[in-house]
Amino acid sequence: MDSQNGTEGITFILLGLSQYPWAQTINFRLLLMSYVITVFGNSLILLLIYYDPRLHMPMYYFLSNLSFLDMCYTTSSVPQMLINCLVTISVISLGQRFAQMAVGLYLGVVECLLLAAMAYDRCVAIVDPLHYSVHMRPQLCVLLAETSWTAAFLLTVVLVLTMPLEFCGHHVINHFSCELLALLKLACSDLRFYELLMLGTSALTLPAPFAFILGSYGRILVAVLRMRSMEGCGKAFSTCGSRLTVVALVYSTAISMYMMPQDKTIHDRDKIISISNSVLTPMMDPLIYSLRNKDMKGAFTRLMGKKIDL
C-alpha cells in the first residue's frame, strides 16, 4: 500500500526473531521469566510500602511511583513480544501500533523525569540530613511526582499529535515492539520539522535531567568522602554506584536512540536497546532500589509475621 491510499486499514508486520525459529523459543522463555520477576518484584514493593507505616517517607513514595511505572512500562511492550514469539507472522494495525507507541513513549519520559526527582531526594537526605524533613515536605514530594507524570503527558501529546501519518513501501518492521523511531523509518513525509521537535523535547527529558542527576550524585560523593565511618562510606558508595549504573543505562541508551543521527534501517543495536529499556531495567529496579534495603527487608518480615499470626 503506498502513501496515496491514506492510512486507513494499514497493518504492520513485526519481524522480531521470526527469521530464527530456534531463537524464538529461547526469547519467549527469557522474556516470560523477566516479566514475571518484574511484576512480582514491583508488586511486592508496592504492597510493602502501602501496608507498612514505617515506609511512608519521601524516599519510598518515589519508589512506589517508580515500581508502578516499571510494571506499566514492561506491560506495555512485553506481552506483545511474547505473542510475537508464538506466531509465525505478527500483524498489528496502525491504531494499535500508535497506542502502544504512545504509552511506551509516555512512560519512558516519566521515568527520565522521575529519576531526577529521586536523585534530588537522595541528595537532600545525605548532604543535609538534619533539614531533610523540612526540605522534603509531603506537599513537595507530591508536586515533584505529579510534575513528572503531567509534564511527560504534555510532551508525549505534542509528539504524537504532530507525528507524520504517511507511510510508503513495505510495512515490515524489523523490531520486537512498537516504538516511535521504528515507525518513523517507514514515513514518506518530510521529517525535518518533526526531527527538530523531537530533538527539543529529548533535550528537556534526557540530557537536562541526566546532568541534574550527575550533579546531585556529585554532591552526594563529596558528602560521603567527608564521612568518618568507613562502613558508612562503603554502604553509600555501594548504593550510589548501583543506582548510577541503572541511571546511566537508562539515559545513555535513550540518548543514543533519540539524540543521535538516524538512518532508515533498523539495526540489531536498536533491538538490544529496546530489550534493555523495556525488560532489563524494570527487572533490575526492584533489586537496585528496594529489595536490598534494610527497611524493605524489615517491612517484609513484619508483613510475613502478620500473615502467620492470622
From TrEMBL:
It is a multi-pass membrane protein. The chain crosses the membrane at residues 30-51, 72-92, 98-120, 140-161, 193-215, 236-260. Its main location: membrane. InterPro entries: GPCR_Rhodpsn, GPCR_Rhodpsn_7TM, Olfact_rcpt. It is found in: Cell membrane. Residues 41-289 form the G-protein coupled receptors family 1 profile domain. It holds the Pfam family 7tm_4. Keywords: Cell membrane, G-protein coupled receptor, Membrane, Olfaction, Receptor, Sensory transduction, Transducer, Transmembrane, Transmembrane helix. The keyword DNA-binding does not apply. CDD domains: 7tmA_OR13H-like. Putative odorant or sperm cell receptor. Belongs to the G-protein coupled receptor 1 family. This is Olfactory receptor. It comes from Ceratotherium simum simum (Southern white rhinoceros). The lineage of its organism: Eukaryota, Metazoa, Chordata, Craniata, Vertebrata.
